[in-house]
Amino acid sequence: MNYTWNWHIFLEPNPTGAGTYFDMLLAGLKVTIVTSLTAWVIALIFGTIVGILRTLPSKLATWIGFAYVEFFRNMPLLVQLFLWFFVLPELLPQSAGLWLKQMPNAPFYTAAVGIGLFMSARVAVQLAAGVGSLPRGQKLAATALGLTTLQAYRYVLLPMAFRIILPPLTSEFLNTVKNSAVAITIGLIELTGAARAMQEFSFQVFEAFSAATLMYLVINVVVVIGMRLLERAVAIPGYITGK
């Protein structure tokens, strides 16, 4: 293979005029982080609501939670992003569809919401499993104390369940970061998109994707260390990570 490595390429100005190629990658990294965090907040909010629905005694609530999870979990993320970005504006009333098409930074909002809803189905399953693993006596004790169902979940069941499922939630958050790379298909220039643009401009493909890989690894290490510290801080003796 006749390939000439050029690690100085990162210090050369990029064709967009916005700094060097390294600045281009950093800008993509920033978009990846912001998109992932926004999507993760959406995933936690909707995942918690749906996870609670799946554990309520109501058959209707259970069915709604089941349908939500099966819809978002079993459809490829790429298809979902295409549906939200290209199909949804055509199905809405003309004024609403036009507003969506003309919304500033539409690829970012579409990616954040689309990835967030996709990951919320996985969070819902994790949370339902966490609530289901709790001893039955905890819910009965909460009821005996006069707590309503909402209060029992808020003050007793959810705090315990979230502590138990923190390790799998770490994996789901890392999956959210990795899934953000799919956003390039709807025009969002995140880290993978920036590496691809650098490769197309400079023809230094290995340097571009080596740097992107290193940046993803740094994110991975920071998230894992942060979540491990959080797990130790909130661990309950006798529950998986507790001692």
TrEMBL record:
Which keywords does the record carry? Answer: Cell membrane, Membrane, Transmembrane, Transmembrane helix, Transport
Membrane-crossing ranges are: 31-53, 60-86, 106-128, 140-166, 208-230
Q: Which residues form the ABC transmembrane type-1 domain?
A: 29-227
Q: Which domain of life does this protein belong to?
A: Bacteria
Cellular localization per UniProt: Cell inner membrane; Cell membrane
Gene3D superfamilies recorded for this chain? MetI-like (1.10.3720.10)
- Report if keyword Electron transport is assigned: no
Recorded GO CC terms: ATP-binding cassette (ABC) transporter complex
Q: Which GO terms describe its biological process?
A: amino acid transport
- Looking at the keywords, is Transmembrane present? yes
Q: How does it sit in the membrane?
A: Multi-pass membrane protein
Its predominant location is membrane
GO molecular function term, any single one: transmembrane transporter activity
Family per similarity comment: Belongs to the binding-protein-dependent transport system permease family. HisMQ subfamily.
Please give the name of this protein: Glutamate/aspartate ABC transporter permease protein
